[in-house]
Amino acid sequence: MDNIIEVRHLSKWFGSNEILKDINFNVKKGEVVCIIGASGSGKSTLLRCINLLEKPSGGEIFYRGKNILSDKHDLQEYRTKMGMVFQQFNLFNNHNVLGNCTVGQIKVLGRKKEEAVETAMKYLKVVGMDQYINAKPSQLSGGQKQRVAIARALSMEPDVMLFDEPTSALDPEMVGEVLNVMKDLAKSGLTMLVVTHEMGFAAEVADRVVFMDKGVIAEEGTAREIFNNPKQERTREFLKRIIGN
Amino acid sequence: MILIERFGVTIMTWKWFFKVIVDYWPMFLRGAGVTLLISIIGTVLGFAIGLIIGVIRTIPLSDNMVKRVILKIVNAILTVYVEVFRGTPMIVQAMVIYYGSLMLFNIDMDRMFAGVFIVSINTGAYMAEIVRGGIISIDKGQFEAAHAIGMNHIQTMLYVVLPQVIRNILPATGNEFVINIKDTSVLNVISVTELFFQTSSITGNVFRFFEPFLVACIIYLIMTLTVTRLLRWLEKKIDGPEHFNVIPGNQMQVARPEDLAKKAGQ
């Protein structure tokens, strides 16, 4: 199987704090990987390093065998291949729903307007937001915003979708609608890397679960291995804390 | 006795007030026109200068040493520009630039051009700071989302950040516009024929000061009030409608009796 992303000896320092220590892991094409762990364990930072919103302090990241940290690499082009969904949605406030999903296609990918609208509508249907194309972000609920954000990322037709705690800022009753969309995407064979606190979601859709603790990957394995039979004591403790209450 | 005298003065004043308007309205109008022209062009150009400087000053420092040094030098020059033009009175700048360009570079500037030039760069210095503040106030997530879909700094600015900044700084821009309408009056020191200059000329003809300047006062007020109203309208227009229309999908197209009746009626 091809590794679409390979992370080698990745480290990240914020000042004198070492957030990531010697991280090694791979994502294969079509795989759904969930990253779990306590707050401050470095899981969001790892995700943000992968599309270079944070600049790694050391190590290498390979995308389809090419080192994206080398000077010669085209950062903008690489980022169009990595769809990113943020905890805080970050929809463009100056665009309506349709504009959010087309501006990147038109300005970055150079698509024609009709093509961009067609693509955007396709993915807005996938997330069930095609009826709201005229709405501005401020007029939507949190769950609706996040679904539009997912459609915006999908409209760029990326190779990998990165989700940074996509349901953490949502009211409890809206978590379900976003998770359902993500489950559908996972089943469609999209390569996904999801940082999440939703253990039920991870158990259901993840091909592989990565547990991070204090800046290192403490344990990784299939969802069943991690949730039913964790080998590490700290994984067990974490899961007990999360699932116990 | 005094009362009658006062009354007489009042009548005299109104008589002159209307006489000045009737006799000299073309001069007032031309003056007001020049004032408006200089302040409109000056505000628009200043706004553009401010936007460009704002974008340059928020470019993230590159890792490339050469680019880094160039950016630092450009930023230093821009800082000097902003500080100098914010820190000196426009009336003095007008003198220095107009007479200075003639003495030092032997450039005989057209007075009108000099007026527009001075107002523009002066407004630009203020707008640069207003724009910078506007850019800083935009949520970091907007930049990250734009970068995450592959936009570079310029694209992020053009398609995501600046449209929001422009909306947010419109009230401050309106302020600058009003200030410009009033402050073009200082350009009379280099004989730009704006409203104050024209009014001064009229006083020389009629040997009265109060009435012509009362007229000028009213004209200034009409111009500033109009501009503030126009900008308020523009703000509302940019904000767009308060509500949005849900586009009904196929599953919702259930024909109701009243709809059918409407259709039949058409």
Assign an overall shape of chain B.
flat
Portion in helices of chain A: 25-40%
Mean of the pLDDT scores of chain A? 91
SSE run of chain A: EEEHEEHEHHHEHEHEEHH
What is the number of strand segments of chain B?
0
Helix count of chain B, per DSSP?
9
**Can you say what the CATH homologous superfamily of chain B is?**
MetI-like
The CATH homology group name of chain A: P-loop containing nucleotide triphosphate hydrolases
Total domains of chain B: 1
- What integer value in Å does the Rg of chain A equal? 18 Å
Note the overall shape of chain A: globular
Order of helices and strands of chain B: HHHHHHHHH
**What is the CATH top level name of chain B?**
Mainly Alpha
GO cellular component, one term (chain B): ATP-binding cassette (ABC) transporter complex
Organism (chain B): Herbinix hemicellulosilytica
Main location (chain B): membrane
Keywords (chain B): Amino-acid transport, Cell membrane, Membrane, Transmembrane, Transmembrane helix, Transport
Written overview of the protein:
The complex is a heterodimer of chains A (245) and B (266). Chain A has 245 residues and is an alpha/beta fold. Chain A has one domain: Rossmann fold (3-Layer(aba) Sandwich). Chain A is built from 9 helices and 10 strands. Chain A has a 6-stranded mixed sheet with strand order 6-7-8-3-9-10, sandwiched between helices. In chain A, helix 6 links the parallel strand 7 and strand 8. The model of chain A has no long low-confidence stretch (mean pLDDT 91). Chain B has 266 residues and is mainly alpha-helical. Chain B has a single domain, classed as MetI-like (MetI-like fold). Chain B has 9 helices and no strands. Chain B is flat, with a radius of gyration of 27 Å. The termini of chain B are far apart. The chains are: A alpha/beta (245), B mainly alpha (266). Chains A and B meet through helix 2, strand 6, helix 3 and helix 5 of A and helix 5 and helix 6 of B.
